[in-house]
């Protein structure tokens, strides 16, 4: 190997090994509201330190690191301003990633990842070992983290919601049920694009926190209802298309089949199932979207779920009473695809829980 090639490979590995440090820089920047303090201005580190109650020298070092990571720019007067990437940490932007950053760098997520080796050896989520309960049960007892989770999911959905509404023919339906829909951000985009539709957000009581206000703010509150429930027990009836975005990757195959069979039970024969999920390529190659694979491992260590290939999705749908009828990738850089399932007739028999 040539010297320059060897140096390049070394730099790549070193950069990856430092990755957790970069994540903490972004986390602290979000917690200190650096982007909100800067907004469209240029300020010195001393000024920012006073504004957020930090040590001036340490703040200067943090801001330099942010500049090195491409989040800030520093001029010759040691004044800092936001870059395009750094501005995504502002909480007032519609495309803000502030909540997503806080969730992904939260100590609970970091704690789960410290057990990646255990999860690789056992195949189970380290989160349950570290915290004594599964992730979603933990969220139920941690209101602030639950609020961050809902906000982060809403932010992630906001970036793709209009594309989903644009790239799928919802006009042939009358009622959309957004299963696991949280704040209803995706459903609102669909309803705005199709004024004749009605909608239902189906989620746990914790998941629906904030949904009423969000749907009203987005102008669709009068066409939407909220239904609390547990998709492991049953799914609300009355819809002719069920949409699940980033829901099934949280769960293992057996749990996914349970959820999907309940969808099949609630859907009419003419209905459709639409999954908005990542579809992994059949073969992993360098230069592919590495975030897909990191997300896959995040599902492993936190909740025991996984990202899936087209063949995996085909098998899940087949086991649940659906036929995979279409897979439509959304335009790049979005990593999601629209996976359509058509009900198979007759419905599969769902075993009763008391048997």
From TrEMBL:
CDD domains in the record: AdoMet_MTases
Q: Pfam families from the entry?
A: Dimerisation, Methyltransf_2
Q: Which UniProt keywords apply?
A: Methyltransferase, S-adenosyl-L-methionine, Transferase
Q: Which residues form a coiled coil?
A: none
Checking InterPro entries in the record gives: COMT-like, COMT_C, COMT_dimerisation, SAM-dependent_MTases_sf, WH-like_DNA-bd_sf, WH_DNA-bd_sf
Q: Answer yes or no on keyword Methyltransferase.
A: yes
| SUPFAM superfamilies found in the cross-reference section | S-adenosyl-L-methionine-dependent methyltransferases (SSF53335), Winged helix' DNA-binding domain (SSF46785)
Translocase is among the record's keywords: no
Among the GO biological process terms of this entry, one is: methylation
- Domain O-methyltransferase C-terminal span(s) in chain numbering: 113-323
Which segments constitute the O-methyltransferase dimerisation domain?
A: 15-90
Q: Which GO terms describe its molecular function?
A: methyltransferase activity
- Source superkingdom: Bacteria
Descriptive protein name: Methyltransferase
Q: Which organism is it from?
A: Streptomyces coffeae
């Amino acid at each position: 190997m040539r010297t320059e090639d060897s140096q390049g490979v070394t730099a790549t590995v070193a950069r990856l090994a430092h990755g957790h440090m970069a994540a903490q820089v972004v986390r602290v920047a979000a917690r200190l509201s650096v982007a909100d303090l800067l907004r469209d201005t240029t300020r010195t580190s001393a000024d920012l330190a006073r504004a957020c109650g930090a040590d001036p020298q340490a703040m200067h070092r943090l801001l330099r690191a942010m500049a090195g990571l491409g989040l800030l720019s520093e001029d010759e007067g040691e004044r800092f301003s936001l870059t395009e990437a750094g501005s995504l940490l502002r909480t007032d932007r519609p495309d803000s990633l502030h909540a997503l950053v806080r969730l992904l760098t939260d100590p609970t997520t970091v704690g789960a990842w410290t057990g990646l080796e255990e999860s690789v050896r056992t195949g189970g989520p380290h989160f349950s070992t570290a915290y004594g309960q599964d992730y979603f049960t933990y969220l139920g007892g941690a209101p602030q983290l639950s609020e961050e989770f809902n906000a982060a999911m809403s932010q992630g959905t906001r970036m793709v919601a209009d594309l989903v509404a644009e790239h799928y023919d919802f006009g042939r339906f009358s009622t959309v049920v957004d299963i696991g829909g949280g704040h209803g951000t995706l459903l609102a985009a669909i309803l705005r694009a199709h004024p004749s539709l009605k909608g239902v957000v189906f989620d746990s009581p914790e998941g629906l926190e904030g949904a009423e206000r969000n749907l009203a703010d987005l102008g669709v509150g009068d066409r939407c209802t909220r239904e609390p429930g547990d998709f492991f027990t049953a799914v609300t009836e009355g819809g002719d298309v069920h949409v699940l975005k980033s829901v099934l990757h949280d769960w293992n195959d057996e749990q996914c089949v349970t959820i999907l069979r309940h969808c099949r039970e609630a859907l009419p024969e003419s209905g459709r199932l639409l999954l908005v999920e990542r579809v992994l390529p059949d073969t992993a190659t360098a230069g592919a979207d590495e975030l897909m694979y990191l997300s896959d491992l995040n599902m492993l260590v936190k909740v025991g779920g996984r990202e899936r290939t087209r063949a995996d999705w085909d098998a899940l749908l087949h086991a649940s009473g659906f036929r995979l009828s279409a897979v439509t990738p959304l335009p790049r850089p979005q990593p999601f695809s629209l996976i359509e399932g058509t009900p198979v007739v007759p419905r599969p028999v769902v075993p009763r829980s008391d048997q």
